[in-house]
Amino acid sequence: MRNVVVVGYGMAGARLADEIRRRDPGADRVAVTVLGDEDHPAYNRVLLSSVVAGSLTADAVRLHDADWAARRRVDLRLGEPVSKVDRTRRVVHVGDGEVPYDALVLATGARSWVPPTEGLLDGDGDGAMAPGVVAFRSLDDCALIVEKASPGTPVAVIGGGLLGLEAARGLAGRGCLVTVVHPVGHLMERQLDPGAGRVLARTLEGLGIEFRLGALAGRYVPGEGLELVDGTSVPADLVVVSAGVRAETALAEQAGLEVDRGVLVDDALRTSDPRVHAIGDCAQHVGTVSGLVQPAWEQAAVLADRLTGAAPAARYAGTTVVTRLKARDVDLAALGDVHVDVDCPDAEVLCFQDPARGRYAKLVLRDDRVAGAIVLGAPDAAAAITQLYDRGLAAPTDRLALLLGRALPTAGGGEASPADLPASALVCRCNTVSKGQLVGAWRAGATTVSALAEVTRAGTGCGGCRDAVCGIVDWLAASQPQPA
């Protein structure tokens, strides 16, 4: 039997263990040991903003229950960080003991990056946050934030990226007085152009969030707030830091593996040592460090194929991702190459703006195919454009109708409903679940949204596909007989 040791029990490590057991349910070929440095079961980090908002409990975002390891024949060890990897002897050091491996998988994730702002750290040199400052990264961080975030509390959020805005929206929903401090002139600059960033800021301002854009925090004074470099200040009894993450590569570096911005891996997800693999946020594949769940889970499936021998030739070819802002009352999707000017000679670029109603749409086409898009406040358009992007279909000739969500993709054009979508249409991107898989699971007896989630995992990632899954369930229930 082959010993596979997984270092990290986050979303990537937990999914890999699940995928291995799907291929080897009796544990006949592969023994799996998972080493997690946190004390509680794996959870869905993507949904932490919902925990901050109070719309989900900590238990609701757990990926595994307390009996998961025993049922799945996984040796799970919680609260046991790995201190060293000995590649010569093929063992990892955990506490006072050693765990041998035939194949080692690093799924160590990423850590919050704390900007060098005076006062954010406690000053003891151990990297701990100062009183009143919390990094937004883990379930424990959420508990600290919720403990301090009573209604009327002034809160400063450092970082106007995806996670920072999700945290800000959750805190505003709790009645906190939230100000987002962001060093760039518009929000989510990695995924949005300036026009979309401005409309998003206006939308969020209408939900009670204030912004200080193009501003740097110079010093945090407990009990007072943030002093900005421009001489102004932001009152804050709580500071939430969400200024980005860095791949956790310390263990890989100690082991002498090749590291850049992440642990370097090839298409087989092997590091510079072919017996050591890396997946998820700590891995760097083809020059890109992942920061979303979909690539991590696709990598887990590929690696499980290889480690169990189910598909030894499996390779990871990269992931086309769609970024969604998971914030109540805001519908935003961004995909592909969005930083293209309207006058770009090799692309067709269309843009629609309706700031007063919180709507913005930008579409980038090359050879009549979607190369990039930003869609804010128009969920029908976002769904249609995402389907075109996923399936590589030609965009309809009525571009304006597409931007307004009035031209949904079907095999022959025209209006689309769940019935019109082909079986191959991707419904849940995080888990690569197609309409055909959902229909098959429904016909096999999974006739509710929760049952479909259990069987196919659809909706258990970012949650952005839940409305689509509900629509398919409603359509099936109305149009087809119940399974016997």
From TrEMBL:
The keyword Glycoprotein does not apply. Its cofactor is FAD. Residues 3-300 form the FAD/NAD(P)-binding domain. InterPro entries: BFD-like_2Fe2S-bd_dom, BFD-like_2Fe2S-bd_dom_sf, FAD-bd_OxRdtase, FAD/NAD-bd_sf, FAD/NAD-binding_dom, FAD/NAD-linked_Rdtase_dimer_sf, Rubredoxin_C. SUPFAM superfamilies: FAD/NAD(P)-binding domain. It comes from the Bacteria. Residues 322-386 form the NADH-rubredoxin oxidoreductase C-terminal domain. Residues 426-473 form the BFD-like [2Fe-2S]-binding domain. It holds the Pfam family Rubredoxin_C. Keywords: FAD, Flavoprotein. This is FAD-dependent oxidoreductase. It comes from Saccharothrix lopnurensis. The lineage of its organism: Bacteria, Bacillati, Actinomycetota, Actinomycetes, Pseudonocardiales.
